[in-house]
Amino acid sequence: MRRRLGAVPRRKETAKVDKRAIKSLFEKWSDEPGLMSLEGIARMAGELGLDPETDVRVLALCWRLGAKKPAQIDMEEWEVGMEGLACDSVEKLKGLVPTLDPAELDARSFRDFFKFVFLFSREGTHRTIEKDIVVSLLPIAICGRSLHTVPFVAFLDEAASTTTRVTLDQWCSFLEFSDKVTTDFEGYEEDSSAWPLLLDEYVEYAKAKRGD
């Protein structure tokens, strides 16, 4: 069939979502108007078959949705995030779950995610996180990318450090330290200001444990 003169070829349609359905999902899991707290996020995770306490994909979903404040997602973040993910139902969110594993991220994206986990896990206006929370959170968030995780968590758990709260700089530095320093501590220079004091204390602790 001959194309009509002046007719414009149809563009391929992009995925469309039901904005009302997206809003209904938010209202289903939100705790108060315009806000989904950790309790609501836990309910959402449960419907997706995820354990909110131990499954890092719950944190990855919050990151992908664009959550900006600690321990919550607001209505605007939810609507924009869900549209960006082309999700407007529980079934579509379940279909997204296999793509949420942060272990599959490239190094740069993983650094962004790892930083997000710290910021999202703070309490209220606190800039730091209690050491006990880090002990539980770090093994989940690091996604197997550090051979230092087990001894570092033991170092924190045994109260071998002088700190009771962990800063964002210390948290992010642990990931960088893990990339650059081997378990034999090759790449670590003593009497250097390259690392936060917390990591210097960790190295001293680990070497003492080995009898170095």
CATH architecture of the largest domain: Orthogonal Bundle
Largest sheet: 2 strands, antiparallel
Helicity range of the residues? 40-55%
Strand content: under 5%
Number of domains: 2
From the 3D structure, determine the CATH topology of the largest domain.
Recoverin, domain 1
CATH superfamily of the largest domain: Cullin, PONY binding domain
- The chain-level structural class is mainly alpha
Shape, principal axes of CA atoms: elongated
Mean pLDDT: 91
What is the first-to-last residue Cα distance?
A: 83 Å
Quaternary structure type: single chain
Unreliable segments of 5+ consecutive residues: 1-14
Number of strands: 4
Question: Count of helical segments?
Answer: 10
Which sequence of SSEs, written as H and E, runs from N to C? HEHHEHHHEHHEHH
CATH classification, class level of the largest domain: Mainly Alpha
Major sheet strand order = 1-2
Radius of gyration: 22 Å
GO cellular component, one term: ubiquitin ligase complex
InterPro entries: DCN-prot (IPR014764), DCN1-like_PONY (IPR042460), PONY_dom (IPR005176)
Function: Neddylation of cullins play an essential role in the regulation of SCF-type complexes activity.
Organism: Chrysophaeum taylorii
Overview of this protein structure:
This is Defective in cullin neddylation protein. One of its GO terms (cellular component) is ubiquitin ligase complex. Neddylation of cullins play an essential role in the regulation of SCF-type complexes activity. The chain is mostly helical. The chain folds into 2 domains: 82 residues, Recoverin, domain 1; 107 residues, Recoverin, domain 1, CATH 1.10.238. It is 51% helix and 5% strand. It contains 10 helices and 4 strands. The longest helix is centred in the middle third of the chain and has 14 residues. 23% of the residues are buried. The N terminus is likely disordered.
